[in-house]
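INFO worker-7 received task bundle
INFO bundle size: 2
INFO processing item 0
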Amino acid sequence: MRVAIAGAGAVGRSIAGELLENGHEVLLVDKAPTAISVERVPLAEWLLADACEITSLDEAALQRCNVVIAATGDDKVNLVVSLLAKTEYGVPRVVARVNNPKNEWLFNEAWGVDVAVSTPRLMSALVEEAVSVGDLVRLLRFSHGDANLVELTLPEESALAGTQVGDVEWPEDTSLVTIIRGTRVLTPSREDSLEAGDELLFVAAPAREEQLEDLLSVRKEDAAG
């Protein structure tokens, strides 16, 4: 997979390193000469250019990219890069970094954004996840399909502990995509049983989040009664 990253700061370089380790082709684009640090990510391609300029994106051959990540520290730049990537080059997947949570409402399909990642929101979500069991935590918002990636740690007293995935009547417009159990990451099958302490990741419609949280948090005695 070929990935272009606009913004070669600490965030962009970190993403590039992870993607390269996973065998992907990565192009880092930045207009600041001081940001071009080839020695820090030597396996990536580098381009000194303004990612908001069509000529620069032509040079980057954005039409050959499977994913574009707008990872600069400027929300206006990230929105422009996202819009150009989607509308001018037809990039299938556009991921954009949101620096100011007040701007998060802009990062949607109208601006070409498929996934908006708000660092402050994600950090607060991870804090909530670390201290909350039984509470639904919203991690990411997907623009297409009006859906969120949400997480909930199954409480010890949940009525669903010990229940097979296929036997649960999940709310409409929700999908259990991953079970994190200790150090293991499981792709759930119908035969897998849920265990107390499992971190469950769902893609869910916002309107179903409360229903999903209620389902997973029902206590055994309440279910029995």
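INFO item 0 finished
INFO processing item 1
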Amino acid sequence: MVQKAKILLVDDRPENLLALEAILSALDQTLVRASSGEEALKALLTDDFAVILLDVQMPGMDGFETAAHIKRRERTRDIPIIFLTAINHGPHHTFRGYAAGAVDYISKPFDPWVLRAKVSVFVELYMKNCKLREQAALLRLQLEGDGSGPDHDKEPAGLLAELSARLAAVEEQAEALSKQLDDESADAAAVATAAHLERKLTGLRRALDALEPGAGSGPATLPS
């Protein structure tokens, strides 16, 4: 069963959170509410999120300050943040949002379809990264000679073939996603994230190829 991605919704107004849930429910992912910046930071201490939808104007810790805290933490600094704002902002206000680490800046009222499409891209990238990490972790276990895994009784050649097939499936999905991003002229941040994922996949493929019989005896370097 594929684990669902978590999406963090941060807004001090319950009606806005309800509207976001209605828009994003079609993605069939786990939606987590936070009614303040402090509550959002607390949720980020324990859970991993694919993307954060963050209201700019909130009492106490506003969206800019919340984003600054998120970007300072090593665990959370790479999570994409989409700012949502209801105020009539100028170029300086928009620049402040991007400077705080946002990948997008959307004014209310926004087009529900556009918001859902943007969020779905980051969810898909997150799922691809999760699959990549799983494959890298499995390969590390086998290279370290850990016999506790479910595949410990398989012959090395058979294990490599299975890992290669799993990786090929992820590579195919990543390639399709990259083409989709190119076709839709997606956000630069989404394109950059997809390119980073492809580089990791390339590194993992090289590591697997180095383990093939006759590929040489040098150590394989796995992507982190």
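INFO item 1 finished
INFO post-check item 1: Residues 112-143 form the longest helix (32 residues).
INFO post-check item 1: Residues 8 and 52 are 5 Å apart (CA to CA).
INFO worker-7 idle
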